[in-house]
Write a structure and sequence with these properties.
The complex is a heterodimer of chains A (112) and B (117). Chain A has 112 residues and is mostly beta strands. Chain A has strands at 9-13, 18-23, 31-38, 45-50, 55-56, 61-64, 70-75, 84-92, 106-111. A five-stranded mixed β-sheet of chain A has the order 1-9-8-3-4, with no helix packed on it. In chain A, strands 2-7-6-5 form a four-stranded antiparallel β-sheet, with no helix packed on it. In chain B, the strands form two sheets. In chain B, strands 2, 4, 5, 6, 9, 10 and 11 form a seven-stranded mixed β-sheet that branches. Chain B has a four-stranded antiparallel β-sheet with strand order 1-3-8-7, with no helix packed on it. Chain B is globular, with a radius of gyration of 14 Å. The interface between A and B is medium-sized, with 23 and 26 residues.
């Protein structure tokens, strides 16, 4: 699986948009970009994933650059409950051998 | 949908005893489940991949005789930590792969905190 690079930490004011970047310059054509978050002492929570098109769901938007070498997760209106570690992971989407390998993620702190 | 449960949520045991952790996919069938371990202030580390009805595949450095994995049904996988020692104290998290809607997504359980005295 391709490696990803994320900032160690970020701050965001409550109510503002949180934009979390991720670099995955070695991503291959068949690898998807997945985002998960982990709130302290809980299991990771799936947020969103995409291949090359931008994606949006009730939690967030995922913007993938045209060359697919980077992406941005956008939380449109961050709340205190969005404080968590956010993981950007790339992996193949097929086969029983596909698995999520976690890096160190970005620790997002949402403040008043 | 796509809910994964774990039981127990926390357990304290004496050194030398064995502990079993259950992982269930509540509203979907999972042919593949994963077990992760997370030490304080570290990221999740994959321990093993289990496929229903077959032997688990362990990551390098994980002792298969110490961490017994059974995936007997499409909704249940168990991890047994045998002869637990204090260094096995950790946060154990399972994950199940859902193929709903044609998408291949892993959903995680809430985790089990194991403390070995």
């Amino acid at each position: 699986d391709a490696k990803t690079t994320q900032p160690t930490s970020m701050d965001c004011a409550e109510g503002r948009a949180a934009n979390l970047p991720c670099n995955h310059s070695t991503i291959s054509g068949n690898e998807y970009v997945y985002w998960y978050r982990q709130i302290h002492s809980q299991g990771p929570q799936y947020i969103i994933h995409g291949l090359k098109n931008n994606e949006t769901n009730e939690m967030a938007s995922l913007i993938i650059t045209e060359d697919r070498k980077s992406s941005t997760l956008i939380l449109p209106h961050a709340t205190l409950r969005d404080t968590a570690v956010y993981y950007c992971i790339v992996r193949y989407n097929t086969g029983t051998a596909s698995k999520l390998t976690f890096g160190t993620g970005t620790r997002l702190q949402v403040t008043l | 949908g796509a809910v994964v449960s774990q039981h127990p949520s926390w357990v304290i045991c004496k050194s030398g005893t064995s502990v079993k952790i259950e992982c269930r996919s509540l509203d979907f069938q999972a042919t593949t489940m994963f077990w992760y371990r997370q030490f304080p202030k570290q990221s999740l580390m994959l321990m093993a991949t289990s496929n229903e009805g077959s032997k688990a595949t362990y990551e390098q450095g994980v002792e298969k005789d110490k961490f017994l994995i059974n995936h007997a049904s499409l909704t249940l996988s168990t991890l047994t930590v045998t002869s637990a020692h204090p260094e096995d104290s950790s946060f154990y998290i399972c994950s199940a792969k859902s193929m709903e809607g044609g998408a291949d997504t892993q959903y995680f359980g809430p985790g089990t905190r194991l403390t070995v005295l």
